[in-house]
Amino acid sequence: MFKARNISVTLLALVLLVFSLPAEEGFAAGGRGGGGPVAKTRAPAAVNPAPVEQVFVPGGWVVLGSDAKEKEFAYEIGGEGARKWRWFDSEARRRVFVKDFYIDKYPVTQSQYHLFVRETGYRYPYISADDYRLQGFLVHSYEEVKPYLWVRGDEGFAPPKVKIDDPVVLVSVDDAAAYCRWRGSSLKGRTFRLPYEDEWEKAARGTDGRYFPWGNVWDGTRANIGQTGPGGTTPVYKYPGGQSPYGVYDMAGNVFEWTLTVDPAGPDRNILKSCSWDDMPGICRGAARHSRLKKSRHILIGFRCVSIVR
Question: pTM for this structure?
Answer without folding.
Answer: 0.83
